[in-house]
C-alpha cells in the first residue's frame, strides 16, 4: 500500500511538472527578427523574466519594432535597437517602464533590456550581447534587485547575423553618433513563431558551456559603458 501511494505521488509530481513545462512553453514563443542582414531567432525565458518577456511581446504584437533601425553598435560589446524610426529620425513612443528583472547572466548571444540609471526605466530598447559582459550582471550582494541588466532570452539561430551586423562600418548619424551604421541595418519585422525545445540561458553562477565567448576585445575598445535607454 505504501509503495502504491509513493508511486501515485510520484505520478502526480510528473504530471504537475509536465503541465508546468507546457505552460512555460506556451508563455514563451520564439521570436523571429528579420533584418536587412539576415534572420535572428530568439528563445525567450518567461520563467526567469516574466514581466520583461510580456513587455517585449506587447511591443512585438503592436508592430513597434517593424521598420526600425539598429542604432547602436559597439564591436566586442553589444548591438542595440528598439525604437529608432528612420522615417522621422526620432524614437517611437513607448509604454510605461517596467520593473528590473536582472538575474540571468549577460553572456554572448543573450538579449537584454536597455535602461537608464533608474533600474525601473526599461521600455522597448534591447541589446544583444556580443561577448560575455559580466559587468552588466546583477551584483551578488544586491538584495533589492536594483543592479544589472535584465536578460530575457537568447539567440538560438542567427548569431552569425548578429556578428555580421556588429562588423558594419559606423558613422556619426543617429541617436548615438559614432555607433550608428553608415549603411542602415533595418529591422524589417519582429514576429512570434512556434517555440522549439527549451534551452534556457544560464542563471547567475551557471557557465554557458554551449557557447564559448570569443577572444576578449582590445583594451582600447571604445564606449564600453553599460547600454543606456536612448530616448533622443
What share of the residues lie within helices?
Answer: 10-25%
Q: Which class of secondary structure composition applies to the elements?
A: alpha+beta
Oligomer: single chain
Strand content: 15-25%
**pLDDT averaged residue by residue:** 82
Strand elements, count: 13
CATH superfamily: Cyclophilin-like
Topology pattern, helix = H, strand = E: HEEHEEEEEEEEHEEE
Domain tally: 1
Q: How many DSSP helices?
A: 3
Structural descriptors:
232 residues; alpha+beta; Cyclophilin; nine-stranded antiparallel β-sheet; two-stranded antiparallel ribbon; 3 helices; 23% strand; globular
Question: Could you characterize the architecture of this molecule?
Answer:
The protein is built from 3 helices and 13 strands. The chain is of the alpha+beta class. The chain has a single domain (26-193), classed as Beta Barrel (Cyclophilin). It has a 9-stranded antiparallel sheet. Strand 1 and strand 2 (38-44) form a beta hairpin.
What's a concise summary of this model?
This protein has helices at residues 2-27, 50-61, 159-166; strands at residues 30-35, 38-44, 68-69, 72-74, 78-81, 84-85, 90-91, 110-113, 126-129, 151-157, 170-171, 180-181, 186-193. It has 232 residues and is α+β, with helices and mostly antiparallel strands. The longest helix has 26 residues, at 2-27.
Produce the secondary structure layout.
Blueprint: H1 2-27, E1 30-35, E2 38-44, H2 50-61, E3 68-69, E4 72-74, E5 78-81, E6 84-85, E7 90-91, E8 110-113, E9 126-129, E10 151-157, H3 159-166, E11 170-171, E12 180-181, E13 186-193
